[in-house]
Design a protein that fits this description.
Strand order of the largest sheet: 4-5-7-8
Order of helices and strands: EEHEEEEEEEE
Radius of gyration: 27 Å
Distance between the termini: 51 Å
Largest sheet: 4 strands, mixed
Length: about 160
């Protein structure tokens, strides 16, 4: 756990009784002054919604507390550089994919995203698979893997 001071941000979600929308009021220095709370809510309500109803019953819907601590910034992890063409380890068996209704399925290259390296370029049609999603490149599209592992997509003009 990182060392350092922790600050706490406290806020109240409040509304006039019978209303649906709420106004979030920050609590300064962790102190709630009940005598000033209604006035602060009315002023905040007027500023946010353009009207207020002083003297109307107010309810606290939620109390929010957030703990904040600064942590040291880590250097981003960079992928190993690739050759520009995905390694054989990244390639999976080709599959047939239907891209357009009325046309037959087309052969589609398939790649495992975790095995791609920085600078690898993939031309569509292709599928880039990972555990939680698949990126589909249509014919004319392309993708380049940047140093952080992000896929930079170019959508082809053929559509």
């Amino acid at each position: 756990m990182p060392e350092g001071p922790t600050s706490h941000l406290i806020a109240l979600d409040m509304r006039y009784v019978g209303q649906e929308h709420v106004l979030t009021l920050p609590v300064e220095d962790g102190r709630i002054e009940p005598s000033a709370l209604g006035l602060a809510f009315d002023e905040g309500h007027r500023a946010r919604f353009g009207h207020a109803a002083p003297g109307q019953p107010i309810e606290i819907v939620s109390l929010r507390v957030s703990a904040v601590r600064a942590i040291p910034r880590r250097a981003p992890e960079l992928l190993a550089p690739g050759s520009g063409t995905p390694d054989a380890a990244a390639q999976r068996p080709e599959r047939l994919v239907l891209f357009e209704i009325g046309e037959g399925p087309r052969p589609c290259a398939v790649y495992e995203r975790a095995a791609l390296r920085a600078g690898d370029r993939i031309e569509g049609p292709a599928a880039i698979e990972e555990e939680t999603t698949t990126t589909l490149l249509r014919p004319g599209d392309s993708a380049v893997v940047d140093g952080s592992g992000a896929l930079l997509l170019e959508i082809g003009a053929s559509r």
